[in-house]
């Protein structure tokens, strides 16, 4: 049985992480930690577990085997390092850090740690991801010529909103690029690898916060495959989609996490039912526990998650310096 400590009690913890761990038969939650005592105690009462407000004290608990970190991005690396040094396994929310350099700090520690260290890019466990993988492996796309991704919604929290940290660059690392973009970049990297170069623009067009509310990026792979990406927090409409287009076939996920995939071969389009698990975090937790028990590498190990931070840094650098950036230059 893997005993868990949950660090941070925001929406992700409440809606997905805690229910996923409770449902995983080899897992149980024994403690929760949050800097706000009332929040920690509320979760503790609901689940019959211990409540902590001091993270260092929580890690002293010898009953704890694994730590799930669901705090603001700026805390991911220091908290994960502290947990690894305490001999715990660590599963941390995405992105790894506010920048590539910070993410590398965790990688260096994880290399010599006894515990597993993985990142919660849960969409690599979805059936639509596996379908795209299989199509690529079988050559069904022909030559992949374009990847298109977009996300837009309205996000303008007031300072009292628990999610307000997302618009503070020192805490979040950026706006919709860092928040939703990283999930989509991770999927792209998992399927096709790292692009070679990027040209990007970011702006804060509508809101008054410091992070971007609008971002566009054009990327290119060494083989010429092109990527068009756009992310916005300033439209009261909504869309979330991902498309891979090849010379012979294409797939479209719209909505991105919806129950169906549109697969087109030539001019013929078919709607394929591929629903996610009822709790999209469950396969992530299941894989992590299996890796602990079988002493195997997690599917989204820290070194794999670093790639998204590297790409994100290149995108921001291109936008701020108004020039094309080669990804390799960013390391």
SSE string: EHEHEHEHEHEHEHHEEEEEEEHHEH
The CATH class assignment of the largest domain is: Alpha Beta
Distance between the termini: 39 Å
As a percent range, the share of strand residues is 25-35%
For this structure, the CATH topology of the largest domain is Dihydrodipicolinate Reductase, domain 2
Pick out the low-confidence regions: none
Q: For the CA atoms, what is the radius of gyration?
A: 20 Å
Task: Write down the overall geometry.
Answer: globular
Multimer state: single chain
Strand order of the largest sheet: 14-13-12-11-7-10-9-8-15
Number of domains: 2
Task: Return the average pLDDT rounded to an integer.
Answer: 97
Summarize the structure.
With 331 residues, the protein is α/β, with parallel strands linked by helices. The protein contains 11 helices and 15 strands.
Structure characteristics:
Rossmann fold; Dihydrodipicolinate Reductase, domain 2; 2 domains; 9-stranded mixed sheet; 6-stranded parallel sheet
Tell me about this structure:
The chain folds into two domains: 2-122, Rossmann fold (3-Layer(aba) Sandwich), CATH 3.40.50; 124-280 and 309-330, Dihydrodipicolinate Reductase, domain 2, CATH 3.30.360. Strands 14-13-12-11-7-10-9-8-15 form a nine-stranded mixed beta sheet. A six-stranded parallel beta sheet has the order 3-2-1-4-5-6, sandwiched between helices. It is globular, with a radius of gyration of 20 Å. The chain is built from eleven helices and 15 strands. With 331 residues, it is an alpha/beta fold. Helix 1 crosses helix 9 (282-294). Helices cover 37% and strands 27% of the residues. The longest helix is centred in the C-terminal third of the chain and has 20 residues, at 302-321. Strand 12 and strand 13 (260-265) form a beta hairpin. 43% of the residues are buried.
């Amino acid at each position: 049985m893997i005993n868990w400590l949950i660090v941070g009690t925001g929406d992700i913890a409440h809606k997905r992480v805690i229910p996923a761990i409770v449902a995983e038969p080899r897992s149980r939650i024994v403690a929760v930690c949050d800097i706000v005592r009332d929040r920690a105690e509320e979760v503790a009462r609901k689940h019959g577990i211990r409540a902590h407000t001091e993270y260092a004290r929580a890690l002293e608990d010898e009953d704890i085997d694994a730590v799930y970190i669901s705090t603001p991005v700026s805390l991911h690396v220091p908290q994960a390092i502290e947990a690894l040094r305490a001999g715990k396994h660590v599963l941390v929310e995405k992105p790894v850090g506010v920048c590539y350099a910070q993410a590398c700090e965790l990688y260096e520690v994880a290399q010599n740690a006894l515990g597993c260290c993985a990142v919660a890019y849960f969409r690599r466990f979805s059936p639509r991801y596996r379908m795209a993988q299989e199509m690529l492996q079988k050559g069904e796309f022909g030559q992949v010529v374009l990847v298109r991704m977009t996300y837009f919604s309205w996000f303008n929290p007031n300072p009292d909103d628990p999610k307000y940290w997302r618009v503070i660059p020192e805490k979040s690392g950026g706006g919709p690029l860092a928040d939703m973009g990283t999930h989509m970049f991770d999927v792209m990297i998992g399927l096709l690898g790292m692009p070679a170069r990027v040209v990007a623009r970011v702006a804060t067009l509508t809101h008054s916060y410091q992070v971007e509310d609008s971002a566009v990026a054009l990327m290119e792979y060494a083989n010429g495959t092109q990527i068009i990406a756009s992310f916005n927090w300033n439209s009261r409409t909504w869309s979330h989609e991902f498309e891979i287009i090849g010379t012979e076939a294409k797939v479209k996920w719209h909505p991105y996490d919806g129950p169906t995939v549109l697969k087109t071969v030539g001019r013929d389009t078919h709607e394929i039912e591929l629903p996610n698990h009822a709790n999209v975090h469950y396969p992530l937790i299941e894989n992590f526990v299996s890796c602990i028990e079988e002493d195997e590498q997690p599917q989204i190990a820290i070194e794999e998650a670093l790639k998204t931070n590297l790409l994100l840094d290149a995108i921001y650098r291109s936008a701020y310096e108004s020039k094309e950036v080669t990804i390799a230059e960013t390391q």
